[in-house]
Design a protein that fits this description.
- A hairpin with a 5-residue loop joins strand 2 and strand 3.
- The mean pLDDT is about 80.
- By secondary structure, this protein is α/β, with parallel strands linked by helices.
Length: about 160
Amino acid sequence: MMQQNFLTIGQAAVAIGVAVSTLRRWDKEKSFSPDSRTVGRHRRYKIDSIKQRFFPGEISEDQRKTILYARVSGSDQKKDLETQARTLEEFTRKKAYCNYELIKDLGSGLNCKKRGLKKLVDQIMRGGVKRIILTHRDRILRLGTKKVFPSKVFK
């Protein structure tokens, strides 16, 4: 079993947009079960299983986008958000990436339920993201970014 094709229950919950307790309940009800378990009985979900169940109709290669993601913690930092957005768009133009989308989020880096983050995860799970461009890696999540998002997504 190659670990890179599997998600932990926490990673799967973030990807789907539900609580960990919901995935446990679905497993108990047999409505959506993990694809395997570790020796320690920890649930593991195949990325493909999640895509098929929750994100049918993957996006073709030529439709995949470059995502520019900007986030600040509070409304008092809106000026910083616009600065991030400008910086990301300038970088994208210099690199000549044509098919891109700017996602701006306002909220804590510890909050996994931000509207923009949910949109980003949804697009990743549908296979619609070619690359993600950030001003800093912690813009997506303050902690655990490497665990939730594989490093090959970042360019």
